[in-house]
Design goal:
about 220 residues; 8 strands; TIM Barrel; alpha/beta
């Protein structure tokens, strides 16, 4: 499926979102991204500026999570956090949908939150996390369609902080639901090469993982 380690690496958002992450950890994350040619690093908002400075001139993107991991802030707070992240150097924003509103059937409120966010943070890539572990299959499809309709470039499976993470079956449901209007990012629990491959085969076009180095090393060893 992948002809080289670099081709695989360009699929990966190299992520460190632990609450215990230190500035030194972020420097290491960025240096690993440079070494392995990952597409992006994904960090918490407080580290966006540091990562952007560390990666300046490398072509590696900085992704900031927004309203993470609960998605329960107000629409205005989402926008403020997104705008600040962009000013600090984020090229992509991974924002959490308000799952409670969606599950309550308040689809227009959930959609307006996201639509406002997309409109008021122009010029960057938006990935909306629908937190699949809390949704039925029908809700996964409905949430994915909602995300595509508000103009977000990606629908993302998970924060990695819920009871479970990405599943290939969920990726397939999401891919079918968006009908090419959005792309799919799988994230949460993708810790080895086989799991990553399953997500890609199901339709994921971006992978979020904190195990990028181990996955790349595994790929390199298997290619010898």
């Amino acid at each position: 499926m992948f002809e080289s380690a670099v081709e695989l690496a360009r699929l990966i958002d190299h992520s460190l979102l632990k609450p215990t992450a230190t500035p030194k950890d972020i420097d290491i994350l960025c240096d690993e991204a440079i070494k392995y040619s990952f597409f992006a690093v994904c960090v918490n908002p407080c580290y966006v500026l540091q990562a952007a400075r560390r990666l300046d001139g490398t072509g590696i993107k900085v992704v900031s999570v927004v309203d993470f991991p609960l998605g329960s802030s107000t629409a205005a707070m989402k926008v403020m956090e997104g705008v600040e992240a962009v000013r600090s150097g984020a090229a992509e924003l991974d924002v959490v949908m308000n799952v409670g509103l969606f599950k309550a059937g308040e689809y227009e409120r959930a959609a307006k939150d996201l639509r406002d966010f997309v409109v008021l943070t122009p010029g960057v890539v938006h990935k909306v996390i629908i937190e699949t572990c809390y949704l039925t299959d029908a809700e996964k499809a409905g949430a994915s369609r909602l995300v595509a309709e508000v103009g977000a470039e990606f629908v993302k499976t998970s924060t990695g902080f819920g009871p479970s993470g990405a599943r290939a079956g969920d990726v397939a449901i999401m891919k079918d639901a968006v009908r090419g209007k959005s792309r799919i990012k799988a994230s949460g629990g993708i810790n080895d090469l086989n799991t990553l491959m399953l997500m890609v085969q199901a339709g994921a076009e971006r992978i979020g993982t904190s195990s990028g180095v181990a996955i790349l090393d595994e790929f390199i060893k298997s290619s010898r």
